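Hi R.,

Here's the chain you asked about this morning:
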Amino acid sequence: MFRKHGRTSIQCPVLLMHKKVGHIEALTRDISAGGMFVGPELDIPDEAIAGMSVDDEVEVHLANSENGIERMRLRIARFAEDGWGLSFIINSRAAKR
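And here is the predicted structure, written out as tokens:
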């Protein structure tokens, strides 16, 4: 299958924040220019997953190398048995600069 963006396999701890489900601790599996695939670090109850839908927005917190936190907005693109595909939400005003 052809991919628009190449992927880089990397495992980084992230915190997903969903407005209905709350906080989910996860690990990235891979990252590309278009988004990332993440899997939960702990077992997630089925009712929590049922509270999430494709196109829901999540805020992702990723620790950076300078002991800070990068905050990103992503959209749930797909669900898989072992995690979720998330796509970056690009701020159209920032993209025009």
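One quick note: The chain has two helices and seven strands.

Cheers,
M.
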